[in-house]
Amino acid sequence: MENELSKAERTRQFILETTAGIFNKKGYAGTSLSDLTEATGLTKGSIYGNFKNKEEVAAAVFDYNLDKVRKQVQQHIQKATSYHDKLMVYAQVYHTFNKEKSFPVGGCPILNTAVEADDTNLILKERAAGAIVRWKRSIENLINSGIKAGEFRPGIDTNEISLAMIALIEGGIMIAKVTGHPSSLDTVLKTVGELVSGLKQ
């Protein structure tokens, strides 16, 4: 039984890995069942034997792509020695998001999913919203820890700063992507860096 379960899990993982870039680039509506069968080499029955429907595949793919981004960010945060540098990781990591092979194909899954699923898919919209809430909480925790450590000045509005950082990063990615000018993202991330540096005592 354990071997059967592990085989099922391997199949699910294979489906996620193989279709992650397709969903992230084409979106839920733009991805067809034939896209999934062609990419994986599996039959419709095999795919839907592991996932209830296309929506469930898309939700699992979002989690898979988001996890890739989270791991990349966390690895750099753990290496940083100051809270300033930990916050700067967001600017540095997203600066290389379109160059790093460890990042999801197609760009930021939060931005891609949020734009498409705004009013069309509640499950994916909630996934994207949850990701932003967790991201915001992570930034707030780093700022609060920096204040307690005496590294950042007291009285900082963590809600305002965290939302501004997220809005700048996601907005910068969107502008760079839609205009085809990566330098636009560089400019925006420079502003993120200035925002973080302004938190110091």
From TrEMBL:
Residues 9-69 form the HTH tetR-type domain. Residues 32-51 bind DNA. InterPro entries: Homeodomain-like_sf, HTH_TetR, Tet_transcr_reg_TetR-rel_C_sf, TetR_C. Keywords: DNA-binding, Transcription, Transcription regulation. SUPFAM superfamilies: Homeodomain-like, Tetracyclin repressor-like, C-terminal domain. GO terms for molecular function: DNA binding. Signal peptide: none annotated. PANTHER family: HTH-TYPE TRANSCRIPTIONAL REGULATOR LMRA, TRANSCRIPTIONAL REGULATORY PROTEIN. This is Transcriptional regulator, TetR family. It comes from Mucilaginibacter pineti. The lineage of its organism: Bacteria, Pseudomonadati, Bacteroidota, Sphingobacteriia, Sphingobacteriales.
